[in-house]
């Protein structure tokens, strides 16, 4: 009972609903065997014997989920930001990802990635690897050891990319994916496999069909990209002329939410039909505002998705996105939603700070189950935020301090504690 059972004391904030932030100043967050038992102004009698860790005046919030990030792209973040998606993939992304056939390079790069992710505000992440088995297995091993909770995908791609990154054919791609699943399924408690067709253009129809079968066999979740860029959408229509929309390609092969828990990155330019499919199938949208800005992709209509009841979380999409910080991601999500409202559709009100916070915590967290809240029964992921380095003469209340941290984390914020599933992650 006592292992991973404790109480955290501090100024506790979490999303009760999309629009309501619960704030308990100098409250007690109770964790029993890794599960939250709620937040209280006074310790309830039944928990009186648990050890209390007092974080003083600091903020305590749920851990955040990065719903879309490419581990192998971490080395070139911040470089080559002057191209659109398809050119960017060919010029920067595919050549860099080809390097992961060299395990020595992969180990060096993935060590840095995992160390930085561990120190970030993300407690959970849904991650793309590359096509390479040894490198992807190394990534999973490192992530598992970090204590963070992740889904990791060995990427599938058998057409329309550089030779060095193309799997020989559908059969080879499927066999290597099956070998990877045999090797890694159930092996790690924190790093679990997720099927990862890169995106429709780089996957032949036999490959997509085989992945649909593997999904059923292993009961796996799925991640991919969807309707990110206008040229990409047109290309998908040319490659799959029978499809009613881009999402229909994945749907046709059982890779779009109905059979498997599925997350699609971007959905910037989804058609009405595609939105309907996403809604009916419970497909998650990973909203990646910084990437959509960097690659001039556009602005995803997140208000529309929220109104439709489509599940949404936030992603950094390294290296389309430059920055691994989910705080920055929240600020960007609010920022681009204002431009959408001002420039594109005056009916679609901008996201509020409460909504962005919900997306980063509960919205994305729900992809992992009961994650992203401190309500009774949720897996306890928590961050302790020290904002004493962000100087001001003004008195702020707790909610204002949280909002300011979202915008100024990089200026003077410091992560003073991090917990995943009730286990403390050592940050130094
Ligand atoms: N679409 C296919 N591959 C990628 C990728 O690596 N990054 C982004 N942003 N979009 C993609
Ligand atoms: Fe991506």
TrEMBL record:
Residues 60-391 form the Amidohydrolase-related domain. SUPFAM superfamilies: Composite domain of metallo-dependent hydrolases (SSF51338), Metallo-dependent hydrolases (SSF51556). One of its GO terms (cellular component) is cytosol. InterPro entries: Amidohydro-rel, Metal-dep_hydrolase_composite, Metal_Hydrolase, Metallo-dep_hydrolases. One of its GO terms (molecular function) is guanine deaminase activity. GO terms for biological process: guanine metabolic process. Keywords: Hydrolase, Metal-binding, Zinc. It comes from the Bacteria. Its cofactor is Zn(2+). This is Guanine deaminase.
């Amino acid at each position: 009972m006592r292992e991973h059972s404790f109480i955290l004391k501090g100024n506790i904030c979490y999303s009760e609903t999309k629009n309501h932030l619960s704030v308990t100043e100098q409250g007690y967050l109770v964790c029993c065997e890794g599960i939250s038992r709620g937040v209280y102004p006074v310790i309830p009698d039944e928990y009186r014997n648990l050890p209390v860790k007092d974080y003083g005046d600091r903020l305590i919030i749920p851990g955040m989920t990065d719903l879309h990030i490419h581990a192998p792209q971490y080395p070139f973040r911040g470089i080559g930001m002057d191209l659109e998606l398809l050119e960017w993939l060919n010029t920067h992304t595919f050549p860099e990802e080809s390097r992961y056939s060299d395990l020595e390079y992969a180990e060096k790069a993935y060590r840095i990635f995992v160390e930085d992710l561990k120190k970030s505000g993300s407690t959970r992440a849904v991650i793309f690897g590359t096509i390479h088995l040894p490198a992807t297995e190394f990534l999973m091993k490192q992530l598992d050891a970090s204590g963070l909770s992740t889904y990791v995908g060995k990427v599938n791609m058998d057409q329309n990319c550089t030779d060095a990154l193309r799997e020989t054919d559908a059969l080879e791609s499927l066999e290597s994916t099956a070998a990877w699943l045999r090797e890694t399924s159930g092996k790690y408690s924190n790093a679990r496999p997720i099927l990862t067709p890169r995106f429709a253009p780089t996957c032949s129809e036999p490959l997509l069909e085989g992945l649909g079968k593997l999904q059923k066999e292993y009961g796996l979740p799925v991640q991919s990209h969807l309707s990110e860029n206008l040229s990409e959408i047109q290309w998908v229509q040319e490659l799959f002329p029978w499809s009613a929309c881009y999402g229909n390609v994945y749907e046709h092969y059982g890779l779009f939410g109905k059979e498997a828990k599925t997350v699609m990155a971007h959905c910037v330019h989804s058609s009405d039909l595609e939105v309907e499919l996403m809604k009916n199938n419970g497909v998650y949208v990973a909203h990646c505002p910084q990437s959509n800005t960097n690659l001039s992709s556009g602005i995803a209509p997140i208000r529309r998705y929220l109104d439709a009841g489509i599940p949404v979380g936030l992603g950094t999409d390294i290296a389309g996105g430059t920055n691994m910080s989910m705080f920055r991601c929240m600020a960007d999500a609010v920022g681009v939603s204002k431009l959408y409202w001002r420039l594109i559709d005056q009916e679609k009100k901008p996201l509020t700070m409460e909504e962005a916070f919900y997306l980063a915590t509960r919205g994305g967290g729900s992809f992992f189950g009961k994650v992203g809240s401190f309500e009774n029964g949720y897996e306890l992921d928590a961050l302790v935020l020290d904002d004493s380095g962000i100087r001001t003469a003004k008195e702020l209340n707790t909610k204002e301090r949280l909002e300011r941290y979202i915008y100024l984390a990089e200026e003077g914020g410091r992560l003073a504690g991090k917990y995943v599933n009730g286990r403390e992650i050592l940050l130094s």
